[in-house]
């Protein structure tokens, strides 16, 4: 894939994450576990008041704003989607959050100064990156010696992606190019970071599946009153079977959601 094709794919992915479907599945934070898991990641990264933190693929800014508020740190969010950056800046102004700011940029080619950050984090995004090793090497460059990178993402056993998720919906669920648990651990270590923590948070996926099931009744009622856009009626028909399949994958250990923290040697 050339640079033009990569840019088009990222723009498409950014638009997908601003869609009503994404908000339906994940809520405003756009990742399993919501802000509770964001705060957990902040504690694991040992963020202190006044620290400088980067949030890569920051979306509408919910996590960056929460991190700044809870840990009294300075957070710079980097997001590819122009609409999301505008929404994040508006949210920062509305909440008078002076410790958070947002820039438009590619989280795989990070537009920030090297060696200036105490912590970097990325939630449910690294799995979508086209060149994960190069991205982690850049992240390591951003960190000061002793700084930490917090990663939360979908973990998928090799070869277990259902065929019906090998497309847009799989991207939305962060599954299409997700690694398995050892893959993420090796990714951090190969990028020059010492792995200091791994934590299974797969129960958060079950909570999302429960929530989606609970919303199915309302979606069916809406479907009976209005004609959905092309393809969404078929998606609703397939949803119960897909939810059941995903739940079984979590129970079988094929699908999970994990937190990882790597530390730059200092």
CATH architecture type: 3-Layer(aba) Sandwich
Separate helix tally:
10
CATH topology: Rossmann fold
**Uncertain ranges:** 1-14
What's the CATH first level? Alpha Beta
Q: Report the span from N to C terminus.
A: 36 Å
Helix content bin: 40-55%
Radius of gyration: 18 Å
Principal-axis shape equals: globular
Give an overview of the whole structure.
By secondary structure, this protein is α/β, with parallel strands linked by helices. It has one domain: 3-Layer(aba) Sandwich (Rossmann fold), CATH 3.40.50.150. Helix content is 47%, strand content 20%. Strands 3-2-1-4-5-7-6 form a seven-stranded mixed sheet. Strand 4, helix 6 and strand 5 form a beta-alpha-beta unit. Helix 9 runs antiparallel to helix 10. The protein is globular and about 45 Å long. The relative contact order is 0.14. The N terminus is likely disordered.
List keywords for this structure.
266 residues; alpha/beta; seven-stranded mixed beta sheet; Rossmann fold; 10 helices; 47% helix
How would you summarize the topology of this molecule?
Elements: H1 3-17, H2 20-26, H3 34-44, E1 52-56, H4 62-71, E2 74-79, H5 82-94, E3 100-104, E4 117-123, H6 132-142, E5 143-156, H7 168-172, H8 181-190, E6 194-200, H9 203-225, H10 232-251, E7 255-263
Parallel strand pairs: 1-2, 1-4, 2-3, 4-5
Antiparallel strand pairs: 5-7, 6-7
Concise overview:
47% of the residues lie in helices and 20% in strands.
């Amino acid at each position: 894939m050339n640079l033009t094709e990569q840019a088009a794919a990222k723009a498409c992915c950014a638009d997908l994450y601003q869609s009503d479907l994404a908000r339906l599945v994940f809520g405003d934070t756009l990742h399993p576990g919501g802000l509770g898991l964001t705060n957990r990641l902040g504690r694991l990264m040992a963020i202190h008041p006044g620290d400088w933190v980067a949030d890569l693929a920051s979306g509408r800014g919910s996590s960056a704003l929460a991190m700044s508020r809870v840990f009294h740190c300075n957070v710079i969010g980097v997001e590819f989607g122009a609409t999301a950056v505008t929404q994040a800046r508006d949210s920062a102004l509305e909440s008078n959050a002076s410790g958070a700011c947002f820039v438009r940029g590619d989280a795989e080619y990070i537009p920030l100064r090297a060696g200036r950050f105490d912590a970097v984090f990325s939630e449910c995004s690294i799995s979508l990156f086209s060149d994960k090793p190069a991205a982690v090497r850049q992240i390591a460059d951003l960190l000061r010696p002793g700084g930490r990178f917090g990663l939360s993402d979908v973990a998928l056993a090799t070869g277990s992606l259902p065929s019906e998720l090998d497309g847009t919906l799989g991207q939305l669920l962060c599954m299409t190019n997700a690694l398995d648990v050892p893959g993420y651990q090796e990714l951090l270590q190969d990028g020059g970071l010492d792995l200091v923590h791994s934590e299974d948070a797969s129960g958060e996926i079950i909570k999302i599946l429960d929530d989606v099931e609970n919303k199915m009744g309302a979606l069916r009622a809406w479907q009976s009153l209005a004609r959905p856009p092309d393809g969404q009626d078929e998606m609703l028909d397939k949803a119960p079977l897909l939810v059941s399949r995903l739940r079984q994958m979590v129970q079988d250990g094929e699908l999970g959601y994990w937190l990882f923290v790597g530390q730059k040697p200092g």
